[in-house]
Amino acid sequence: MVTDGYSHYECDVATCRAEAYARPGTKEAEAFSQRTRLDSEGRQRTLTLCPRHARAYDVLARVVEAAFRRFEDAGVCDIGRKGGDAS
Ligand SMILES: [Zn+2]
């Protein structure tokens, strides 16, 4: 028997091997999700992620979002430097 309508889902994290062949709309398919952001050059980047990496991405996004909020509030960049010397 041949059943059409399956799609291949694969995590876009280079070292991750998670993948699935599933019909869109099924639980297996919906386990893979997409995240979209603008990179520092303003280009839109969309990733398809397995459940584990989607959770990790969301944690990272919340941390970065909080840093941008602090920047918006006080004009200070407080990540990405060692020692924490503020200027
Ligand atoms: Zn993954």
Explain what you see.
By secondary structure, this protein is α+β, with helices and mostly antiparallel strands. It has one domain (about 5-75). Helices cover about 30% and strands about 25% of the residues. It is built from 2 helices and 4 strands. The chain has helices at about 25-30, 50-75, and strands spanning about 5-10, 20, 35-40, 45-50. It has a two-stranded antiparallel ribbon. Strands 3-4 form a two-stranded antiparallel ribbon. Strand 3 (about 35-40) and strand 4 (about 45-50) form a beta hairpin. The model has no long low-confidence stretch (mean pLDDT about 90). Zinc ion (ZN) binds near residues 13, 16, 18, 49 and 53.
- Number of E-type strands: 4
> Proportion of β residues?
15-25%
**Global outline:** elongated
Q: Mean of residue pLDDT?
A: 91
* Helix content range: 25-40%
The parts where pLDDT drops under 50 for at least 5 residues are: none
Instruction: State the order of secondary-structure elements, H for helix, E for strand.
Output: EEHEEH
User: Helix/strand-derived class?
Assistant: alpha+beta
State the major sheet.
2 strands, antiparallel
**How many discrete structural domains?**
1
The tally of helices reads 2
Biggest sheet strand order reads 1-2
Bound molecules: zinc ion
Using the CA coordinates, give the radius of gyration: 18 Å
Question: Distance N terminus to C terminus?
Answer: 67 Å
